[in-house]
Amino acid sequence: FRIERELRAGIPRGELRLFLQPQFSAAGEVVGAEALVRWQHPERGLVPPGVFVPVAEESDLIVELGVWVMNEACRLVAVADAAGLPLALSVNISPRHFRKPEFNSWARSVLDRTGAPPERLTLEITEGLIIDNVSDVVAKMRELSALGIHFSIDDFGTGYSSLAYLKRLPIDELKIDKTFVQDAPHDPSDAALVETILAVARQLQLKVVAEGVETAEQAEFLNSRGEVVHQGYLFGRPAPADEWLARWAADA
Ligand code: G
Ligand code: G
Ligand code: MN
Ligand code: NA
Known about the structure:
Blueprint: H1 3-10, E1 16-24, E2 30-41, E3 45-47, H2 49-56, H3 61-82, E4 89-92, H4 95-98, H5 103-114, E5 121-125, H6 127-131, H7 134-147, E6 150-156, H8 165-168, E7 173-176, H9 178-183, H10 188-204, E8 207-211, H11 216-225, E9 229-231, E10 239-240, H12 241-251
Parallel strand pairs: 2-4, 4-5, 5-6, 6-7, 7-8, 8-9
Antiparallel strand pairs: 1-2, 1-10, 2-3
Bound molecules: guanosine-5'-monophosphate (2 copies), manganese (II) ion (MN) and sodium ion (NA).
């Protein structure tokens, strides 16, 4: 199973699939979704991203993957928009892809071509991206932010960067990593960490999304500590984009 070679051949053959995982307000309304890629391998079946994203990230294959995901995400947003569903979609962006000099002009061209409103798009980046080459990253983020694109820090709290960057960057949202979310109800240090993230977010007026909410106890813990958007198996699993769109259209 030569992952790199097969994925390189598989992307142009249309083997990638876009799954969505919904995000819910405390009141139970769908407020957005995260796009999560899958690989429909001809023999292996549906391959989860944990298997091939790290391999793709070792080369510019991650750029090809990122191009496919962004095109598909923007196409979906435009389709949803035309159907009267204002879908807010979060897309994971690999640091290697974001650092490409042409990232911004390319992102703009995808928006133009698909007609997706930039305000519907949140780019999930990680603390690792921000640590090196800060000034270049800041400039690019500001430019995209001026178009209306939102930014979220994924896996927040797992990196090693200083909190100072939160003030400098046009960030709209923090995603609390699932390891903290899952242990917070019983582990005092994880509980303190979640409370601290919520306090920082309140101060800086950032939205908070909790990832990996699996139990009612975890959801209740979060709701008792602040305003949090929930994403996790308790509320909805990642499923093919078409399935979620059909369901939301039926509910609308
Ligand atoms: O869905 P799952 O939990 O298996 O995802 C595993 C990892 O793959 C997560 O870290 C997630 O951020 C990453 N991932 C999922 N979809 C994408 C994508 O479209 N692009 C990138 N760069 N990473 C993704
Ligand atoms: O790294 P990133 O945050 O992009 O990846 C999110 C990952 O978390 C996805 O692979 C998704 O499948 C996974 N995920 C989403 N909800 C849950 C959950 O409730 N429990 C667990 N264990 N994983 C989840
Ligand atoms: Mn993510
Ligand atoms: Na995460």
